Each structure stands twice: as C-alpha cells, then as structure tokens.
C-alpha cells in the first residue's frame, strides 16, 4: 500500500505543481490588473497544495527526498501529471477552460478525500477543498462571461472546448494504484466522480451558451505513465533551471 | 519540589503564550496571530523548550514562513528555547477570528468575514459584505482575489471607496 500511496501523492503533487507553474506564467501578462492578481493567487494555492503533497510523499517513500528534490530534480519521464495541466496557456479562454476542467474535478476529489482513512491526506484535503471552491467559481464565472460574451470571445471559448476536451478522459482513469487505494478508503475512485463532473460542466456550459463536446471524442492518455507532450520539456527547463545550474542553492 | 515544578511549568507556559500571542500578522498588522487563530497553542516540552503550533490560513500563504520566524523570534526574545511546528489539522477557518479582532479589522478598513464558513457555498452564492468605512451594504465585488490570498477586492457603491474583504474559508 505504501508504494501505491507514494505514486498517488506524486501524481497529485505533479498535477498541482505543473498547473501552478503554468498559471504563474500569466503574472504580469493577464488581461486586467484584477486577473493579474487572481491567477498568481490561484497558482499560490496550487503550489502550496503541491508542497504539502510532495513533503508527505517524501516521508512515505522514506528515502530522504524532500519537496525540493521531488519538484526540481526528477526527469521528465518521472513526472506523473495529467496531460491537461501541462497544456500551454494559449489565449485566456484556453487558460480558463483548462482551469475549469481541472478545478471542478479536484473539488469533488478533495471533498471525498476529507474522509480519507489516511490522516495526513485528509488534513491536506480539508484545506484544499475550501480553496478549490474559489477556483471553481473563478473559472466558471469567466467561462460564462466569455462564452456568453462577444462573438469573438464565444468563438475563442468554443475553440478552447474543442482543443482541450480530449485531455479530460485522463482525469477519470483508474489502474491498480487508484483501485487499491479506493478499496482501502485512502483516496476516491476517480471514475466515480465522472457523473458529477459531467453535470457541473453541463450546467456551466448551458449558462455560457457553449456547446458540449461530443462524448465520443477520442481521448489522449499517457501522463500518469510519464509520457508527456513536447511542451513539458520546455516547462521543466524553466522550472528546474536554477536547481540544475546551481545544485542545492537556497535563498 | 514536584508541586513547584508543576507551578513553574504553568507559569512558563503562560509567559510563552503571552510572548507568542503578541506577534502581529505581517500582512494585517492591526491584529495578532492569536487574534486570527493562526497561533494554535504554545506548550513547554520535557526539555523546557517552548513549542508553538501554527496553522497556515491558505496552503500557499507566503506569510506562513514569516509568521513562523516571528513567533520563534518573539519566544527567544522572551528567554525561551523555541521551536515552531506547522499543523494542518484541523484546517484553519475564518470562524476562529474573534469578535474583537473583527472590530479591529473593520476599524483598519478591511471588511471582516461575513458568514460562518464550513458551508461550501453554491456555485454562484452571493455574500453580503458591508463597507468597513460607511457601513453601507450596497457593495460590489471587483475580484475574488485581492492583495493577499486571504482577501477579496470590493467597492462600496455608496461612498465609492474600494476596500479589502477578508474571505470566508
């Protein structure tokens, strides 16, 4: 069970670190000053959650790796994050939709994880679930504003829906890791969250006057096994540069 | 001898609490870390070390480290060997901000958290926030995310002043 828990914590921590890094790329570039504060604020939440998860993963692994080691000193193939979170920011519509897809899933995931039989994971979840409420609201309000906005904003939002839907299937994938942890009551079964996710997304898309994507859309996969897109290498180059160039450097 | 040690222990604990509790929040200096409920407890362990337990407001709050350092420094200045532990559970909530601290926040120009937390609000639930300057409830939200992770950005439609709102969590 220890190995499965380590793997799960790493997946979750990588999701949060990579998405936090992506959103932080907006700092200084967001379309309005308020968004320039909002996006880095959300990035802070995600990176804070990643830190707790990495620290705990290191303890579970028991090989002396700490949060910095896990975040900065692994190779691309060792990252277990979803392909969705590593997608480039694209335009603001792409960023918002990626955020909506992920936050709606994580809100449901954290809510279940609050009752985890693992005390530490339950404690991390109890904090994260409250933060995720704000993330969902932020993304949902923007999705509606853009989808039901001008012709141009609606067109861009629809393009984002088309581009990103194929990366959502991975959210609900199960394997031996998720199955055994779900059976032990440690972590929710991701497949069981699909109905709620579909309902929430449909409700928001209806208000945003966005068409729901075809559920038969072919789904991309690979992130959980360490197979990433081309953009991941560029992301890690920036994320890891300082620790690679100056090993052990501290502020 | 035993009774004296126990007495002394309690006295030390009270002194240590007093020293740690007086530390102001680095981002909202009108209130202390104890007012905000960030400082959970101070105990004297078997080796006579003052152990302060601190909980972050938000997972990624950058002030957490500054608060831990400030609490440790305050304890050392009060003559204690000190250690600070970060605890996640139970998760911090705005319900721990006392009535007096809410008044201090209001006087400082920050609208205190309006509702009891714990209720995960509906997707588009609106919060009633009153202007900390003129008291009007005719306010509008400019952004859910303000100058720090714990605050949102509002504007009063009556006196037209912008202000920070301490978010419920």
Automatic annotation (TrEMBL), chain B:
Residues 122-167 form the PaaD zinc beta ribbon domain. InterPro entries: Fe-S_Maturation_MIP18, FSCA_dom_sf, MIP18-like, PaaD-like, Zn_ribbon_PaaD. Residues 17-79 form the MIP18 family-like domain. It comes from the Bacteria. It holds the Pfam family Zn_ribbon_PaaD. Gene3D superfamilies: Fe-S cluster assembly (FSCA). PANTHER family: 1,2-PHENYLACETYL-COA EPOXIDASE, SUBUNIT D-RELATED (PTHR42831:SF3), FE-S PROTEIN MATURATION AUXILIARY FACTOR YITW (PTHR42831). NCBIfam families: PA_CoA_Oxy4. This is Phenylacetate-CoA oxygenase subunit PaaJ. It comes from Oricola thermophila. The gene is paaJ.
């Amino acid at each position: 069970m220890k190995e499965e828990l380590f793997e799960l914590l790493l997946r979750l921590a990588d999701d949060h670190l990579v998405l936090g890094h992506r959103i932080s790329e907006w700092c200084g570039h967001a379309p309005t000053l308020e968004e320039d504060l909002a996006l880095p604020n959300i990035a802070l939440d995600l990176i804070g959650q990643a830190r707790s998860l990495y620290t705990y993963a290191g303890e579970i692994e028991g090989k002396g790796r700490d949060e910095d080691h896990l975040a900065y000193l692994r190779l691309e193939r060792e990252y277990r994050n979803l392909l969705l979170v590593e997608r480039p920011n694209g335009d603001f519509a792409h960023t918002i939709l990626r955020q909506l897809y992920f936050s709606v899933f994580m809100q449901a995931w954290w809510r279940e994880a609050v009752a985890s039989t693992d005390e530490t994971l339950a404690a991390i979840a109890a904090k994260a679930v409250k933060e995720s409420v704000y993330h969902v609201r932020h993304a949902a309000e923007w999705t509606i504003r853009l989808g039901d906005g001008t012709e141009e904003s609606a067109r861009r939002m629809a393009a984002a829906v088309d581009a990103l839907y194929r990366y959502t299937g991975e959210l609900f994938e199960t394997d031996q890791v998720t199955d055994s942890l779900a059976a032990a009551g440690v972590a929710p079964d991701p497949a069981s969250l699909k109905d709620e996710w579909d309902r929430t997304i449909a409700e928001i898309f209806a208000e945003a006057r966005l068409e729901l994507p075809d559920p038969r859309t072919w789904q991309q996969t690979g992130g959980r096994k360490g197979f990433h897109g081309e953009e991941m290498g560029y992301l890690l180059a920036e994320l890891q540069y300082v620790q690679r160039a100056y090993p052990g450097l501290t502020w | 001898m035993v009774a004296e040690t126990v007495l002394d222990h309690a006295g030390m604990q009270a002194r240590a609490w007093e020293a740690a509790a007086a530390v102001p929040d680095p981002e909202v200096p009108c209130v202390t870390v104890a007012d905000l409920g960030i400082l959970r407890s101070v105990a004297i362990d078997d080796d006579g070390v003052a152990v302060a337990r601190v909980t972050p407001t938000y997972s990624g709050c950058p002030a957490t480290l500054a608060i831990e350092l400030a609490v440790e420094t305050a304890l050392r200045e009060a003559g204690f060997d000190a250690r600070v532990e970060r605890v996640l559970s139970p998760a911090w909530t705005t319900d721990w901000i006392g009535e007096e601290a809410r008044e201090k926040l209001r006087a400082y120009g920050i609208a205190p958290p309006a509702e009891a937390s714990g209720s995960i609000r509906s997707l588009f639930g609106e919060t009633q926030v009153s202007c900390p300057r003129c008291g009007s409830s005719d306010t509008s939200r400019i952004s859910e995310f303000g100058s720090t992770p714990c605050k949102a950005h509002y504007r009063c439609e009556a006196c037209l002043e912008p202000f920070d709102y301490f978010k419920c969590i």
